[in-house]
Every structure is written in structure tokens, then in C-alpha cells.
Design brief:
InterPro entries: P-loop_NTPase, TOR1A_C, Torsin. The chain folds into 2 domains: 181 residues, P-loop containing nucleotide triphosphate hydrolases (Rossmann fold), CATH 3.40.50.300; 54 residues. By secondary structure, it is of the alpha/beta class. A 5-stranded parallel β-sheet has the order 2-3-4-1-5, sandwiched between helices. A two-stranded antiparallel sheet has the order 6-7. Bound molecules: adenosine-5'-triphosphate (ATP) and magnesium ion.
């Protein structure tokens, strides 16, 4: 890794504290390589694990499968994922990662940046820019099929990342055309919410919603373009067509939260109790006020809610 000690400390230490020393120890000892990519496995995983997100399932399946199959893609794959809290934005990155890397999200080749955590101080933006550039360059030079996830991108850092997303042959001898960049954001959630609610009110099937329904995709990037907080970084990406896919995550309905509770029971090795799962799901808050169709927190606090219904042994 071409990086200075401070740089290593800056990024590795927080990760080490978060993951635990033994996880880090494991990461360096296990075989941390690529899986042999199989689009059927990705499809099965997406369809089985991710509820209520047919646009995301289709788009991610096609985009990632095509990208993984190409021997010499023209540029890095860039996905911009939008939606309200708890609808599966981080979760889909986990699904993608576990279908590409043997260690999934724990792979050394997957790098997640959380804006408020990794880049907290405005006055240190210049240093972050330099470190981020070196980090991306160093890691891709070491392992071209690296994945970078930005959870709520910091506006100042986009110029740093932009060259890596572009149609450039190489930057200082390194090609970025096998790397994957994923941006997660709440931006545009109200547009996605309105379109989904409109479909529901008209009695239309949710699965009929497409990325361009009621101009959703255009509305999202117009919003990104004009929003003062996000426009700065998004506008240059939009202008230069560097984002390959905008992926709206729809708000989740009761039946999806119910599926999340059932899945959670499975993860906890509990007997899956349909009625109990229904009670737990029903107990979550829903919006809008009159119709109460969509879960305010999506599936985010399902596990905590479930604990309240369990009998202590
Ligand atoms: N659509 C979904 N299908 C299946 N499980 C889901 C879905 N959405 C959320 N979950 C469950 O809820 C958990 C929290 O979701 P996740 O972290 O992906 O939310 P998010 O969209 O990133 O929210 P936030 O914007 O608050 O970060 C996931 O780990 C997963 O277990
Ligand atoms: Mg998230």
C-alpha cells in the first residue's frame, strides 16, 4: 500500500475499533480474494433477501452482471442509490459484496466511508481530499476490482473522486475501469415517496413503478442538481454523465416489514412465527398520517422491536 503512517492510522484505526481486533486479524489471514462471479447467484440472493425493491433488484442485477462479465469496461461502475431510512441501501451493498468477494463486506477490497465519521471536520477537508485520493489510487493499484461505498457523500470530496469515475485510460499508471463506486443518499427520498404513494392511491401495482414513472429519475437528478447541499457535487457528476445508474429505493409497506421480521427470526434461529411477525410489523410507525401505508423507519429497527415480543428464557 502506497500510503504514509498517518494515513494508515487515519483510516485503519477507526475501522479496527469498529470491527474488533480479531476481525482485523481474520481479515489479513483469510483468503481475501474474488469469488468466481455468477449472475444467477446474485439474482437468487437479491430476490430472496431484498424485499419490495424491484427496481433496485433489476438494475443492480443487470449493471453488476454486465460489469463483472466485461473484460475491459470503458470506466468504473458508478451507482447512486437513493431512498429514505431503513429501506435497504446499505443492505444491497452487503448483497453485492458477498457475491463478488469471498469475505463480502469484510473484504480488504471493500472500503466504506461514512461522511460524518470519516470526514467530520470541515477545516480538514484538504487533508481528507489528499488522503482519499491516495487511498483510492493505492488500493486500486493493488487490487483493480476494489469497491468503494460512500454513505452520504461529503460535497467537498467529489472533485477528488471524479477523475476515478471518468472515461480515463489510466491515472498515474493505474486504470480504474474495474473498480465499483456506490453512493448512498437520502437525497430525493420525498420524490420517490410521492411517486410510490401516488401509485398506491391510484390502486396501481407497486411493481409497475419504473425508474422513469412520473419522471422520477429526471426529478431526482434535477433535484440533486439544484439542491444547495448536494448540487455542488452531483451537478458535475450529472453534467459529465459519470453516474451509470440512479437507483430509487421505494418506501416499504407492512407486508415488506413483515418479511423483514420473518427473515430476522430466521437469522436468530428462531421458529418463524407468521402471526407474531405480523404483530411486530404492525407495531412499527407508518405514514402518511391518514393512510399509514409506508413504514417510517423501513425495516431498520425490526430486530429491536422483536426483542420486546420475546419471552425471556
Ligand atoms: N428492502 C429490504 N429488504 C430486506 N431487508 C431490509 C430491507 N431494508 C432494510 N432491511 C433490513 O434492515 C436493515 C437496515 O437497513 P439498511 O441499513 O440497508 O437501511 P438504509 O436504507 O441504509 O437506511 P439509512 O438511510 O438509515 O442508512 C438491513 O440490515 C436489513 O436487515
Ligand atoms: Mg444506510
Amino acid at each position: 500500500m502506497k500510503s504514509g503512517t498517518f494515513f494508515v492510522l487515519f483510516f485503519i484505526l477507526p475501522v479496527a475499533t469498529e470491527a474488533g481486533f480479531w476481525d482485523i486479524f481474520d481479515m489479513f489471514n483469510k483468503d481475501d480474494d474474488l469469488l468466481s462471479f455468477n449472475s444467477k447467484d446474485l439474482e437468487n440472493d437479491l430476490r430472496k433477501s431484498l424485499f419490495g425493491q424491484h427496481i433496485a433488484v433489476d438494475t443492480v442485477l443487470k449493471a453488476v452482471s454486465w460489469f463483472m462479465r466485461e473484460t475491459d469496461p470503458p470506466k468504473a461502475l458508478v451507482l447512486s442509490i437513493h431512498g429514505q431510512t431503513g429501506v435497504g441501501k446499505n443492505y444491497i451493498t452487503k448483497i453485492i459484496a458477498r457475491n463478488i468477494y469471498k469475505l463480502g463486506l469484510k473484504s480488504n477490497h471493500v472500503h466504506t466511508f461514512i461522511s460524518g465519521y470519516h470526514f467530520p471536520h470541515e477545516e480538514m477537508a484538504e487533508m481528507y481530499e489528499l488522503q482519499l485520493r491516495q487511498w483510492i489510487h493505492g488500493n486500486v493499484s493493488n487490487f483493480p476490482r476494489s469497491m468503494f461505498i460512500f454513505d452520504e457523500m461529503h460535497p467537498r470530496l467529489i472533485d477528488t473522486i471524479k477523475p476515478f469515475l471518468d472515461y480515463t485510460d489510466n491515472i498515474d499508471g493505474v486504470s480504474f475501469n474495474k473498480a465499483i463506486f456506490i453512493f448512498l443518499s437520502h437525497t430525493g427520498e420525498h420524490i420517490i415517496g410521492n411517486v410510490t404513494l401516488d401509485f398506491w392511491r391510484r390502486g396501481c401495482n407497486r411493481e409497475e413503478i419504473q425508474i422513469q414513472s412520473e419522471g422520477m429519475e429526471t426529478q431526482i437528478f434535477e433535484y440533486l442538481f439544484n439542491d444547495k447541499n448536494n448540487g455542488f457535487w452531483h451537478s458535475s457528476l450529472i453534467n459529465q454523465h459519470l453516474i451509470d445508474h440512479y437507483i430509487p429505493f421505494l418506501p416499504l409497506e407492512l407486508k415488506h416489514v413483515h418479511q423483514c421480521v420473518m427473515a430476522e427470526m430466521g437469522h436468530l434461529n428462531m421458529t418463524q412465527d407468521y402471526d407474531l411477525a405480523y404483530k411486530v410489523a404492525k407495531d412499527m410507525p407508518f405514514f402518511p398520517e391518514e393512510e399509514k401505508v409506508f413504514a417510517v423507519k423501513g425495516c431498520k429497527t425490526v430486530r429491536q422491536k422483536m426483542v420486546l415480543y420475546l419471552k425471556l428464557q
